[in-house]
Amino acid sequence: MLRIHFSGNDLAGVRMAARPDVLWETILSFHRLRDRRGSMVFREWRSEARVRLGAETRLLAALVPGRGYFPDFLTPPQGILGVDEALDAIRTTPPGRIHAEVALLGTTRAGRPAVPAALRALAEGASEPLERLVAALRGYHRAAVEPYWSHIQARVETDRALRGRALLDGGAEELLASLPPMLRWRSPVLEADYPVERDVHLDGRGLLLQPSYFCRGTPVVLRDPGLPPVLVYPVTHCEAPTVREPGLPSLAKLVGHTRSAVLSAIGDGGTTSELARRAGVSLASASQHAGVLREAGLVATLRHGNAVLHTLTPLGAALLGGAQTPRETRCYARNGPVTS
Predict the structure, then answer these.
(1) Residues 68, 215, 30, 312, Cα dihedral to 10°
(2) Do the beta carbons of residue 302 and residue 234 sit within 8 Å?
(3) What's the pLDDT tens digit per position in 86-118?
């Protein structure tokens, strides 16, 4: 059982991550690559990723076991900024920290931490093994995560929109109560099924909520209680990750003033009635056009109880804005979810 203990100050400090974290997605996808859970969602992704992968998986397998603990330094907070910033942060990890965290992967006969033989050069603090690790992470990310990044962004942004609506409606406690079913808010404690007994005391530091596409089954927290608290939890999956390129046949459906108006109306979010009112169409028409936009890869949809949440994908946002780079996705809601 995992128990995260909140004070009033901690509730005030609950916040949502602004976007997916490249290294959390990279490390957790490596778990998904080797397990058989989520076959409907991840089967095709596994097949495609394995074709592109090379020797980098051998080093990662030594650092990231199929189950249980993996070192905290592999997921620095800079992962939210992008892969280059995240890997630079790993490069600057103090050698003493690397040694201590790698040692937790192995034990002596007396039960004390011991550095596994395959990782001793890395744990000793030499620069060359650390650069090999950085290169392995970059290569794995390029093969297994980067091609699907737009899809990952869309799913995470849809989840963020749902949590944001809960926060606006009822504050931090409503947000915590809205989390996926494996997480249970029993004020002032957030509980989850977990492989080990673990109590996390926030001590006034608040909590960063990080939705993750490749997280599965149980949430993830950092092992070191001195690090900034973060809770990584699974987004709800509606479809398998795909590599979408402009020019798909379904994009041909995207014609006419009305559908463009509906796409624009999704904008910064609103109920289905608000979407229909902004576009000047009926409720049924707004729903139908949103469905076509979804088929074209411009809108992502998440069902959550009685709510239906639509967000612009990066492709939809780019098409709508005509900007050089896609803006972050937005949403609307209709009335009415490994250990480290």
Answers:
(1) -170
(2) no
(3) 999 999 999 999 999 999 998 765 677 788 888
Residue 13's nearest CA partner among 177, 211, 167, 193 is 167
325 φ/ψ angles, rounded to the nearest 5 degrees: -130, 145
Reduced to 3 states, what is the DSSP secondary structure of residue 16? strand
More confident residue, 133 or 308: 133
Render 200-269 in DSSP notation, one character per residue. EE-TT--EEEEEESS--SS-EE-S-TTSPPEEEEEPPPSS------TT-GGGGG--SHHHHHHHHHHTT-
- By the 8 A CB rule, do 17 and 75 touch? no
> Residue written as tokens 């979010």?
269
Q: Which residue has 């209709």 as its token pair?
A: 334
Measure Cα distances from 291 to 141, 260, 328 in Å. 32, 13, 20
Give the 3-state DSSP-derived string for 252-302, with helices as H, strands as E and coil as C.
Answer: HHCCCHHHHHHHHHHCCCCCHHHHHHHHCCCHHHHHHHHHHHHHCCCEEEE
Rounded to whole angstroms, how far apart are CA atoms 290 and 115?
Answer: 54
From CA 81, how far away is CA 279, in angstroms rounded?
35
Give the whole-angstrom CA distance, residue 37 versus residue 54.
Answer: 23
Place of tokens 């402009």: 246
Residues in a beta bridge with 231: 209, 221
pLDDT for 121-178, tens place per residue? Answer: 999 888 899 999 999 999 999 999 999 998 898 889 888 888 988 898 899 999 999 9
Cis previous bond, 188, omega within 30:
yes
Q: Does residue 276 contact residue 290 with C-beta atoms inside 8 Å?
A: no
Letter for the amino acid at 123? Answer: A
What is the predicted pLDDT for the residue at 270? Answer: 55
